[in-house]
Amino acid sequence: MQRNRRPLNPEHQLSHLPMAGLIQSRIKRLFVILTGLLAAQILIIWAAEDLNLFESTWMTMTTLVTVGYGDFAPKTYVGRISTILMMFVGAITLLTLIVSDYIEYRFYRRERILTGRWIYAMKDHIVIINTPQTGGEQYFSRLASQMRSVPGYETIPIMILTRHFPGGLPPELKDCGLVHFHGTGSDPLALKAVHAGSARHIIILAADEADPSSDSLTFDIAHRLSESNLGQKITAECVRDENRDRFTAMGVRTVIRPVRTYPEIMVRSVVAPGSEKVLEDLFNYQNDHPHRYEIDLDDLTWADIVSALIRHGIGTALAYIDENNEVVCHPPTDQEVEGKGLIVLVKSSETPNVNVVEEALDRYREFIKKWHDLQDQAAEEEDIAAKTAGQ
């Protein structure tokens, strides 16, 4: 029974150390040995044979890779013996070990990437901490596609810090170019592994968008990042509105409600801080809300309509409904609008009725007519003055 049998590879004795580093250091060591053997062989051939330095190097390299073109061959006993040793020690043994270790390293790296334990050398990337309880794949896929449609973010790397994918990311997320690290934002080592300090943006998703207690976990993660002066990079989800002030006082740049159906809101809050307030307000009926007015539109430009509603304190025009019942958002300002309805952002406490809107538009028509009349009158007076000066 072989009790003192030595292990095949040294990392089997050093399992407590990072295997990638062990394999890489062994490959480097083997390369150093091989380089030394090649240099010695070249010098021996150069000294023992009737060959110059280039020819000695050429013959040594063709011997190393077992090609042996035959254009040069050792003729002395010293040269032949050194070539035999170099063949067996260098070509057969060392090269085999190097190739074996390289393949082992590739398999090891692939397994670590698959399970989310590979540390990427990233900077200026986006770190997303936590995963939605349901529909995480669809959420991340849509978020990535929306994020990369923003100018300047087309190729930005996205890293997910989560424990939801222990067996690897789904294929659709890999196809989007997303990578992940298996861990939690409460772990300082995990935050270091995803290079949070070098990230352009850090997104902290609520662990459970329906559980107010998940704010405690979000607060813990945000606090750890704020201690490293990363608060201005953080966009954090907050379930309870009462906790928003706590995140803001900590230095968190943007605080947003969890909205899983529309990851576009998260994208806007990241790339355009403050826009999330506008988008959240559209979903809140307490202050402002979009209201639809059935009204004929035929002789005003979009700029006229927007100005008329604002001047009369009605609200902000968001879109109009054309004759085909299609909603047209943000039309050209100088184009005359023809439609049968308006969508206006109005105060929920004082929602004007359709008669007030029609009256505002009529008044603006009269204002425009008077302004045009004044313009025409001024033009006529200029013409008369020009003719008089010419006479």
What does this structure look like?
There is one protein chain. The chain has 391 residues and is of the alpha/beta class. Helices cover 48% and strands 16% of the residues. The strands form two sheets. A six-stranded parallel sheet has the order 3-2-1-4-5-6, sandwiched between helices. A four-stranded antiparallel sheet has the order 7-10-8-9, with helices on one face. The longest helix has 38 residues. The radius of gyration is 36 Å and the shape is elongated. The N terminus is likely disordered.
Put the structure in a nutshell.
It is a multi-pass membrane protein. Pfam families: Ion_trans_2, TrkA_N. With 391 residues, this protein is α/β, with parallel strands linked by helices.
What descriptors fit this protein?
391 residues; alpha/beta; Helix Hairpins; Rossmann fold; Alpha-Beta Plaits; six-stranded parallel sheet; four-stranded antiparallel sheet; 12 helices; elongated; disordered N terminus
